Amino acid sequence: MKKSFVKLFVFAFFTIAIGLTAGAQTIYVKVRPPVPTAVVVRPAQPSPHHVWVAEEWRPNGGGYVYAGGYWAAPPHEGWIWVPGHWKKHHEYGEYWVAGHWRRP
């Protein structure tokens, strides 16, 4: 009984560990996906405090999809939005660094 419990515990541990690392993988591309050519129409700004968060790339399976922009309120007064960007890796290609909020 004790051996079965230990085996079950080890199995569960590795299953969870693999699941957590799989979600944190960086997706590298050799060629950037093409940017859609559609015209982006911004809806009205909800308040003077809202900031436009421009369109970005989002991981999807083994690649990226283009996600539309939206208005967002900073998490703290005075914080600024840093747009996402492509970053080159010397060996694997490029990967998308998502936009994020930061202190000024």
Strand content of the residues, in percent?
Answer: 25-35%
Radius of gyration: 20 Å
Widest sheet: strand ordering: 1-4
Total helix count?
Answer: 1
Largest sheet: 2 strands, antiparallel
**Helix and strand composition category:** alpha+beta
Helix-strand pattern, N to C? HEEEEEEEE
Q: Please estimate the helix content.
A: 10-25%
Strand tally is 8
Low-confidence stretches: 5-23
Whole-number mean pLDDT: 82
Distance between the termini: 58 Å
Can you tell me the overall shape?
Answer: globular
Walk me through what this model shows.
The protein has 104 residues and is α+β, with helices and mostly antiparallel strands. It is built from 1 helix and 8 strands; from the N terminus they run αββββββββ.
Question: Key terms for this structure?
Answer:
1 helix; two-stranded antiparallel sheet; 104 residues
